[in-house]
């Protein structure tokens, strides 16, 4: 069984919207107060406060006169917010994330409901303290015979309401395919495949940049705290939502196609976080969303029984001749085609890199490869980071 989330848009009634906004506000308040309490305890008394202590603080807050409104919403989202804060601190102490930030109202918000805080009846969803079901736009059907284990309601900065239903379902693996492919990530071409195909980069941000600039200039002219500024902020958020939706739609279609057509997919393990520090390329790299593309490939390969192999980021895929194996010393980014000085083969930079990535990936899959020691210069080897079929 695999946990899978189904996300839908819904349109709340005025009464439901009032209740949901109040719930989001209370969840945000509890989260921020707990974060402030944990931060203060550490800096003033060198004391670590965990989930149990913040849960006790929540009980005390509900008894205060100025926080009596916390009792008007379901207690489950408040407790889930404290659990999410505990997870955020666990990731911080493990070095996987930065220190947790305070939540802001203008970013919308979310509230998580477990089974005790909602009812699933005849395909309709009833949240706690609400008598009417949510008016959900069922863009796709959830698997038959399953019930959600967790429901997450989210309000985006653009004012869009969405609900995510987390269910336990059995995902059938795809039939085995004889195809294997190497994928080279780029900017002009989002990906180049070892088959010789190139997929153009849609550049979603660049397409909306003029429109975004216009609404952002209008926002900057509005007086802070005014209703006109609030409406201008919504327009900016909607443009950002358009960019995000177009990017996500393209990436999902592309990754689904790659997973359906190929049994083994080899990609580079790029350090995108470090690459965006290049001021000249940071915008283009962020717009390409390489990290999101690889993330989607990872979980889709895991779902459908495919194999994803990550090649060491220092593997010279572009500078290595796919015909004789010769590695050139330098290959600037502006050179898109080059001739091998050893065998004279003419290479397309991206296609050659994709073929080398595939060859290295197959070597990892079949016989393994040496791990490059830390702080040692790369000699063209690769390392194994394979997600095998389960």
Structural account:
By secondary structure, the chain is α+β, with helices and mostly antiparallel strands. 41% of the residues lie in helices and 18% in strands. It is built from nine helices and 15 strands. Helix 1 crosses helix 3 and helix 5 crosses helix 8. It is globular.
Instruction: Give the % helix.
Output: 40-55%
The CA-CA distance between the termini, in Å, is: 12 Å
Mean pLDDT: 91
Quickly count the helices.
9
Count the domains.
2
The major pleated sheet works out as: 6 strands, mixed
Number of strands: 15
What is the element string, with H for helices and E for strands? Answer: EHHHEEEEEEEEEHHEHHHEEEHE
- Low-confidence segments, given as residue ranges, are 370-390
Morphology: globular
Strand content: 15-25%
Widest β-sheet, arrangement of strands: 10-9-8-11-12-15
Evaluate the radius of gyration. Answer: 25 Å
- Counting helices, strands and paired strands, the structural category is alpha+beta
């Amino acid at each position: 069984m695999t946990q899978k989330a189904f996300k839908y848009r819904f349109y709340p009634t005025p009464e439901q919207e009032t209740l949901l906004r109040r719930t989001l506000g209370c969840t945000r308040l509890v989260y921020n107060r707990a974060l402030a309490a944990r931060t203060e305890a550490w800096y003033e008394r060198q004391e670590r406060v965990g989930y149990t202590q913040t849960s006790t603080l929540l009980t005390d807050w509900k008894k205060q006169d100025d926080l009596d409104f916390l009792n008007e919403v379901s207690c489950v989202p408040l407790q889930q917010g404290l659990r999410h804060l505990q997870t955020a601190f666990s990731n911080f102490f493990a070095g996987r994330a930065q220190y947790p930030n305070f939540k802001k109202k203008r970013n919308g918000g979310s509230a998580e409901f477990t089974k005790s805080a909602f009812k699933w009846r005849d395909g309709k969803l009833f949240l706690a303290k609400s008598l009417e079901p949510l008016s959900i736009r069922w863009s796709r059907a959830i698997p038959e015979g399953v019930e959600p284990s967790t429901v997450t309601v989210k309000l985006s900065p653009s004012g869009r309401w969405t609900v995510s239903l987390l269910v336990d379902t059995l995902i059938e693996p795809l039939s085995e395919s004889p195809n294997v492919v190497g994928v080279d990530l780029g900017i002009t071409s989002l990906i180049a495949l070892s088959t010789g195909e190139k997929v153009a980069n849609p550049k979603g941000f660049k397409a909306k940049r003029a429109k975004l600039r216009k609404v952002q200039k209008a926002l900057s002219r509005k007086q802070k705290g005014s209703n006109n500024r609030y409406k201008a902020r919504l327009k900016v958020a909607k443009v950002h939502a358009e960019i995000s939706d177009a990017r996500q739609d393209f990436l999902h279609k592309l990754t689904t196609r790659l997973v359906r057509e190929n049994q083994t997919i080899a990609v580079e393990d790029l350090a995108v976080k470090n690459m965006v520090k290049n001021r000249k390329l940071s915008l283009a790299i962020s717009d390409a969303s390489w990290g999101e593309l690889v993330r989607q490939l990872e979980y889709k390969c895991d779902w459908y029984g495919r194999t994803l192999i990550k090649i060491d980021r220092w593997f010279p895929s572009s500078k290595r001749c796919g015909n004789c194996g010769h590695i050139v010393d330098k290959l600037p980014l502006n050179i898109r085609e080059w001739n091998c000085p050893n065998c004279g083969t003419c290479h397309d930079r991206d296609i050659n890199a994709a073929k080398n990535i595939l060859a290295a990936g197959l070597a990892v899959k079949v016989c393994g490869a040496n791990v490059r020691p830390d702080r040692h210069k790369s000699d063209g080897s690769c390392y194994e980071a394979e997600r095998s079929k389960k």
